[in-house]
Amino acid sequence: MPPPKDVVKIAIQMVGAIPQLIELQQTKPLASVLKDVCDAWSLPNAERYALQYADGRQTYITESNRRDIKNGSILRLTTSPDQEAEQLYIGIQSKNVDVKTDSLKKLASLSQDVTFAQEFISRNGLKQIYSIVEEGNDTGEMLAHTLKAFTELMEHDFVSWENLSTVFIKKIVSYVNMNAVDASIQQLSLSILENMVPTSRLLFEVVKKEVTLDRLLTHLQATNAQLQLKAMALLIALLLSTTDAERRDMMDYLRKKNIRQFIHKNIIHSSEPLGDEMAHYLYVLQSVSLNLCEHRMKMSMDPYSQEQRDLLQSLRQTAFESESEVPAGTFSTERRRSLCAKEFRKLGFMNNSNPAEDLRRAPPGLLALDNMVYFSRNTPNAYSRFILENSSREDKHECPFARSSIQLTLILCEILHIGEPCSETAQAFYPMFFGQDHFFEELFCICIQLVNKTWKEMRATQEDFDKVMQVVREQITRTLSLKPTSLELFKTRVNALNYSEILKLRQTERLHQEETLAVPVLELREKLKPELLELIRQQRLLHLCEGTLFRKISSRRRQDKLWYCRLSPNHKVLHYGDVEEGVQSPPIESLTEKIPVADMKMLLVGKECPHTKEKSSGKQNKDVLELAFSIVHDVEEYCLNFIAPTRYEFCLWTDGLNVLLGKEMTSERTQTDLDVLLSMELKLRLLDLENISIPDDPPPIPKPPSNLNFCYDFSHTEQ
């Protein structure tokens, strides 16, 4: 008798027939199972039939995926994929418009299934799709179904995008460039072009030439949110596929067209909530734009470059304009050199005789010089005030402008991740970035004045330089975490966060983190741990019961498909299934796929996951590896793969799954939560002992009394 895991109890339906309840033996060939099912309903030619799931995506059952069938699954007997593919292949060539449209509609639906797609493509079905697009003039329902079917078939990666003909590509481009065409067709066309662009340089060149930036900007201004999203997706795909020079030109053109202001007003602050996918594209656009600074950041100053020397001299001339106007013949060369060195020292250069040496460090390289020049030219009053104010202070208390600017530029580059590749899943962008041209330079102008303000508040000397810059970094990061919507709001908040406020925040955080280290308290801490760990376990399981929305990332890293996973209230079954955009918490009944907790074998994370190994040929992305985990169930080769939306979700899900597997919770979040709970519980327990020192050793137990006659006898009551 086969082991229980090789037998599943299922129901099989067929239109117009009484359902069959069978025990499916997984070791029995699928052809034999189909023959038995067909014989029970007296159906000849069992090879013309196949089984597929009755709910959800209605995937065909094959030898490769049959192990995914769970107890209680409902299957349906239907036409086999090869028969269906043959019928639809004939149907899409029909002269009857209704038959052709219905066939294309069904094709678009069935093409999501990999087995059917393989059968249809093997019959040269894509060639018929090409013909319908290339030769047809229809822009209605038939074309929409055709493009949808094409997109789904190409998603399986059986055919290379490079095989597409120039005629086909130009036809797709024409739908994007047309004005009088249905929005759904334009969305599908934009999506097709987005998939083409990363696959080859040739396709990128074709799309870049045929679809102008002006046309994409027109689609971005559409009121249709999905059309807007697909236009943004294509724009990002083009930007990521360009060379550095092309990217710079494209960004310059977009800046002239005021794309930032449009995004700030009509997308970020629109009445509709911002979706995760659009948030990711805005993050990428921000990252690409800021990374244009990378070239200057990594370039050291060349002391022999006249242009760079002129920029450096302009800083001195702007600050000490009246002194620089003295006629050249008034001083000797030596005297003039001495005067310049003195002025560069007042500007805060460490090497005042040769200030170019201060800018040889890269990063921040020439980017620091660019920032200083921008500050001096665009806010000359603030620049002069900074220099003159510090020139009049005692030597040890003056805030060095140049040294501070160089270090501040480096800090801003680190905070804004300039020079780092774009994350494939991140959605964290700064709304104020899109509300301001020259964002990086303007941010620098605010922050360099903050350095001077903080320097004065700290009454700092030259020896305190690193401490001041650490405080400034903290002021900037804390303010950015509040996501201010404009630079003005950022300026107001960062200036309000003065040195005394930083000290208060640090003190508060330190008090939260500090623990009394007395031995009795440590013993109490250990005693409380099991109870609090159990509380954390219950919270993790509760989170799994509430469920989470995950995104599917294909080989081309597209994130437009969503699925939801949640644990049943009795903690015995994991339910999951595909959901549509906008669905926040689907009912558990709508999630058709199931994994019994008893069938779960182990949890894999990071590089151990099969879906990260599959993509190891490409450039691995660190953040995806940090968010990836998989559940191995039944036998090791069957996994349910996840990519968590955030590190927080990753920690909660991996902890919860480890609890279900009877293992220890290992995420960093567990330790953080445990520390917080222990701190709170200890403070509550020790509340009455405030300002009382706790001895390391318990007090000695006194000797027993000489007699025990001190107990009052209540039996002798006074009369």
Structure in words:
This protein has about 725 residues and is an alpha+beta fold. The protein has 4 domains: about 5-80, Phosphatidylinositol 3-kinase Catalytic Subunit, Chain A, domain 1 (Ubiquitin-like (UB roll)), CATH 3.10.20.90; about 85-275, Alpha Horseshoe (Leucine-rich Repeat Variant); about 300-320 and about 335-510, no CATH class; about 530-670, Pleckstrin-homology domain (PH domain)/Phosphotyrosine-binding domain (PTB) (PH-domain like), CATH 2.30.29.30. Helix 10 packs antiparallel against helix 11 (about 225-240), helix 16 (about 305-320) packs parallel to helix 19 (about 365-380) and helix 26 packs across helix 30. The protein is flat, with a radius of gyration of 34 Å. The model is unreliable at about 615-620 (pLDDT under 50).
Features:
719 residues, 30 helices, 52% helix, Ubiquitin-like (UB roll), phagocytosis, alpha+beta, Leucine-rich Repeat Variant, four-stranded antiparallel beta sheet, ELMO_dom, four-stranded mixed beta sheet, flat, ELMO3 protein
Low-confidence stretches: 616-620
Give the percentage of residues in beta strands: 5-15%
- Going by helix content, strand content and strand pairing, the class is alpha+beta
Q: Radius of gyration, Cα only, in angstroms?
A: 34 Å
Taking the sheet with the most strands, its summary is:
4 strands, mixed
Distance between the termini: 88 Å
Q: Work out the helix count.
A: 30
pLDDT averaged over residues: 87
